[in-house]
C-alpha cells in the first residue's frame, strides 16, 4: 500500500497545478475526495477517488515544459469561457498552466508546465529566481528614477524588495525582479510618476526569450534544466 500524501502535494505531483493553486481549488470547493468535499488536511493516495471539477485525478502525469511567447491581449487565467484566455492557446492536450503570470496588457516569456513542484521552485519567495523585463514608459526617465525603483517603493501596502534597474533608452528601462506582486512593475512606475506603455518579459531564471527564436503566440518544448541550471 502506498504512503498517503497531503492532498495539495498530490495534486501538484499529478500535474494539476501548483500546491498554492491546489489550496485555492480546495478553498473554492472544486476538489472532492471519495465523494465528499476535500479538506486541506486530507492525505490521499492512488486508491482514493480524487476529483477536480468532477474530473478524476489519479497518479503522476508525464511532466512537460514549454516556453511560450505571449502577445498582448491574452489573459493568463485559464477560463474556458473567455475567448481571450490562455487556455485556448495551450500547446498540448495535457493540462499545463503558466509559471509567473503576465497581465493581459503585457507580453513576453511564459513557462507552461504541469510540474507543480518545479513551479514552486521557481516562484516561491525562498528561492528568489530572477525575472528580467524591458519596460517602455510614457515620458523620458528622470535622473533618479532607476535608483528610486531599485531601492524599493510602496506597492500593495508593502515596500518592494531591492532590485536591479538600468536605463537603456530615453523612455525605456530594464528591471530584474525576484518577487512577483500583482502588476508590480506598473504600480512601481506609477508611484514614480510614469505610465507603462509596453512591458516585455525577456527572461525567467536562465531561460532567455531572445535566444529561443520564438515568434509571438508560439510554443517551444524545452527541458526544465534549460530554465534552471543551478
Search tags:
230 residues; alpha+beta; Structural Genomics Hypothetical 15.5 Kd Protein In mrcA-pckA Intergenic Region, Chain A; Alpha-Beta Plaits; 3 domains; 9-stranded mixed beta sheet; elongated; EC 5.4.99.-; PsdUridine_synth_cat_dom_sf; S4_RNA-bd; Pseudouridine synthase; RNA-binding
Descriptive overview:
It comes from Pseudoalteromonas prydzensis. It catalyses: uridine(35) in tRNA(Tyr) = pseudouridine(35) in tRNA(Tyr); uridine(2604) in 23S rRNA = pseudouridine(2604) in 23S rRNA. By secondary structure, this protein is α+β, with helices and mostly antiparallel strands. It has 3 domains: 53 residues, Structural Genomics Hypothetical 15.5 Kd Protein In mrcA-pckA Intergenic Region, Chain A, CATH 3.10.290; 81 residues, Alpha-Beta Plaits; 74 residues, Alpha-L RNA-binding motif (Alpha-Beta Plaits). Helices cover 19% and strands 30% of the residues. The strands form 4 sheets. Strands 7, 8, 9, 10, 13, 14, 15, 16 and 17 form a 9-stranded mixed sheet that branches. Strands 3-2-5-6 form a 4-stranded antiparallel sheet, with no helix packed on it. β15 and β16 form a beta hairpin. The two termini are 36 Å apart. The relative contact order is 0.16.
CATH superfamily of the largest domain: Pseudouridine synthase I, catalytic domain, N-terminal subdomain
The outline comes out as: elongated
Helical content class: 10-25%
Total DSSP E strands: 17
Number of helical runs? 6
Major β-sheet, in short?
9 strands, mixed
Structural class: alpha+beta
Mean pLDDT: 90
Q: CATH architecture of the largest domain, please?
A: 2-Layer Sandwich
CATH class descriptor name of the largest domain: Alpha Beta
CATH overall fold name of the largest domain = Alpha-Beta Plaits
* Number of separate structural domains: 3
Distance between the termini: 36 Å
* Parts with pLDDT < 50 across at least 5 consecutive residues: none
**Radius of gyration using CA atoms only:** 19 Å
Strand content: 25-35%
Order of helices and strands: EHHEEEEEEEEHEHEEEEHEEEH
Domain RNA-binding S4: 5-62
Family: Belongs to the pseudouridine synthase RsuA family.
InterPro entries: PsdUridine_s_RsuA/RluB/E/F_cat, PsdUridine_synth_cat_dom_sf, PsdUridine_synth_RsuA/RluA, PsdUridine_synth_RsuA/RluB/E/F, PsdUridine_synth_RsuA/RluB_CS, RsuA_PseudoU_synthase, S4_RNA-bd, S4_RNA-bd_sf
Protein name: Pseudouridine synthase
